Amino acid sequence: MSNYTPTPIVPNWAGEFSSYQQWVNKGKSWLASPDHRRAVCIDDKGRRVTCGADFMLARDEDAFPVRFFWDCEPQASTLGPSPDEKLVAALQEILTLSSPAIMQAAARAGLAAAGVEVK
């Protein structure tokens, strides 16, 4: 089995129902998609809402608004460089400031194989 990590995604929110009554009045028209895709509805507690009973549960448990979307996009990275990227950058900085003997020792230690450019 591979060690694959999917890209985090975020919904492209299309709208929301502020109340159960608004869903009753507007749901059919607001959730209609020109290309016949089904909307994904999520209540305020993070639960998927797929049928009338789910909307009633959201009403009874004060879980409105219920937001909806049709598609997602990749999440923008707000965390900055990963720890590995920070380590590689720090090592590259050290190596550019170091003597030729240290750079040769680093190359022998295998840093070049880890993606660190040894000059």
Short description:
With 119 residues, the chain is of the alpha+beta class. The protein is 37% helix and 19% strand. A hairpin with a 5-residue loop joins strand 2 and strand 3.
Helical fraction equals 25-40%
The CA-CA distance between the termini, in Å, is 37 Å
Class from helix and strand fractions = alpha+beta
| Number of helices in the DSSP assignment | 4
Count of distinct strands: 4
Low-confidence stretches: none
Fraction of residues in β-strands? 15-25%
Q: What pattern of helices and strands is seen along the backbone? A: EHEEHEHH
Mean pLDDT: 79
Q: Which overall shape is indicated by the principal axes computed on the Cα atoms?
A: elongated
Sheet having the most strands: 4 strands, antiparallel
Radius of gyration: 26 Å
How would you write the strand order of the largest sheet? 1-4-2-3
Descriptive key words:
119 residues; alpha+beta; 4-stranded antiparallel beta sheet; 4 helices; 4 strands; elongated
What does this entry look like structurally?
With 119 residues, the protein is α+β, with helices and mostly antiparallel strands. It is built from 4 helices and 4 strands. The chain has helices at 20-30, 52-60, 83-97, 100-108, and strands spanning 9-17, 40-42, 48-49, 66-74. Strands 1-4-2-3 form a 4-stranded antiparallel beta sheet. The longest helix has 15 residues, at 83-97. It starts with 8 loop residues before the first strand and ends in an 11-residue tail after the last helix. The mean pLDDT is 79.
